[in-house]
Design a protein that fits this description.
By secondary structure, the chain is α+β, with helices and mostly antiparallel strands. The protein has 4 helices and 12 strands. The strands form 2 sheets. Strands 3, 4, 5, 6, 9, 10 and 11 form a 7-stranded mixed beta sheet that branches. One of its GO terms (molecular function) is single-stranded DNA binding. This is Abasic site processing protein.
Amino acid sequence: MCGRFALFSRPPAVSRWLGLPEPDAAWQPRYNISPGTWIAGIRRAEPDAEPRFDRLWWGYRPHWAGQTGPEPINARAERLDESKYFRGAFHKHRCLIPADGWYEWRPGEGGKQPYFLCREDRQPLFLGAIWEPYMDETACCAIITEPARGIASDIHDRMPLVLDDDSLAAWLDPTLTEREAIRSVVHHLDAGVLTAWPVSTRVNRVAHEDADLVEPVTL
């Protein structure tokens, strides 16, 4: 799953990586991003619009579901084309969530131990996500997850869909609307470039928000 992540790369670095203009409003470094908050994302608000940075609500609820509909934070890649809840957004409303890494918890004798996962070269990651209009304020989103691969599988059985750099433009391409067409040109990042280390259990509390959260600890 993906229930907590960090984004501390500055907007100019992320925008240069994507070849996009910088966002209108710069975000502040965040080391403990939790669901039910506004997060940075990249999307096409309209099919003929250029991709741009936007503020997205992390918690997905299609407008037709009403105010009482569920608001999942993740969507399983295996079910995107089968689920009525996610199908429309998968075909028409795909977006990217920039991150420097994400947290997962591995069960142990002393309780669950958090780990931070990121690229070995410490470059930004881009998580595949879907969006829908949200309460007349920009959009809401869910981060897509897939079975864990590589080092991530040693910690948890799921991980976010991290896209490789050559797939980012295609993921946002509004002309790609069919599952097989999307799968033929969109690929996840090679798991061999990921690394992970244990971090402080302070990350368990969303009130903790500082750079020390991503520092390795000795078990």
